[in-house]
Amino acid sequence: MNSLVTRFHLLLAAVTLAITGVALFRVPADFLFVARWSGGTPLWQWPRDIALAVGPGLSVLLLVVFFVMGRQFTKNQFAKSQHILDPALSLVLAIITATQLGLLLNGFGSDLDLIRFTGLGLGLTLLLLGVVLYEAERHTYAGMRMPWPIAGDRAWTVVHRVAGSAVFLAGAGLLVLAWFDAGIGPMVMGFAVAVLGPALIAGTATILVRR
Q1: Contact 52, 133 (CB under 8 A)
Q2: What phi and psi, each to the nearest 5 degrees, are found at residue 98?
Q3: Cβ of 120: how many Cβ atoms within 10 Å?
Q4: Which residues sit opposite 47 in a β-bridge?
Q5: What is the pLDDT of residue 153?
Q6: Across-strand partners of 45?
Q7: What is the mean pLDDT of the chain?
Q8: How far apart (Å, rounded) are the C-alpha atoms in residues 3 and 70?
Q9: pLDDT classification of 112: cutoffs 50, 70, 90
Q10: Is the pLDDT of residue 48 over 90?
Q11: Residue 188 · residue 99 · CB < 8 Å
Q12: 94 in Cβ contact with 59 (< 8 Å)
């Protein structure tokens, strides 16, 4: 049976749920997470229950979507997509787990800004990945694979230049947000844009070059 959801993915989701449980018991119900400051004034705040519910909800949604997606793929599509979708799901779930832990630490009043550190780490990783994709040559062991083929060397190069540039810019954007300490809210939104944006751009590019 084709399945894009592995035990590691389930472990990350379970850790996120565990962190959420600890936060619900240890962080006061009326606590407001400050998502952004303006000087010394809270400009953007999240109620505890809403902020803590987003991570587990997204984790469960992603697991369901990827499980259904894997079941719908043919064996050939699954073989071509697994090596991309598997680590992609791992990355997104890991970001959610780190963000949830950052919220827990924030609720405890800790000075450790784990969400900002996650932004720095992810930004550097995306910068490197962007360079690799941009400079990649067409062969078996590097580059992107889609369920549909990328016809021709020129199309392959165009897709990887576009995808590499998008990933590099996403990483640079996260580094800027982290460097200037934009706050929890902009950082979390930056995570979503940095992960989903380049993927959508790359997928769109592969479709356009087929025409």
Answers
A1: no
A2: -65, -40
A3: 15
A4: 32
A5: 72
A6: 34
A7: 88
A8: 5
A9: confident
A10: yes
A11: yes
A12: no
pTM, full prediction = 0.87
Closest CA relative to residue 52, chosen from 89, 91, 25: 25
Tell me the β-bridge partners of 37: 42
The torsion defined by the Cα of 67, 94, 61 and 29, in degrees rounded to 10, comes to 150
pLDDT grade, residue 143 (50/70/90)? low
Contact yes or no for 133/175 (Cβ under 8 A): no
Instruction: Give the pLDDT score at 116.
Output: 93
Looking at residue 147, its pLDDT comes to 56
CA distance 18 to 24: 10
Give tens-digit pLDDT for 68-98: 988 888 888 788 778 888 999 999 999 999 9
The tokens 């992960």 sit on which residue?
Answer: 195
Tally of CA atoms within 13 A in the half-sphere of 104 that contains its CB: 19
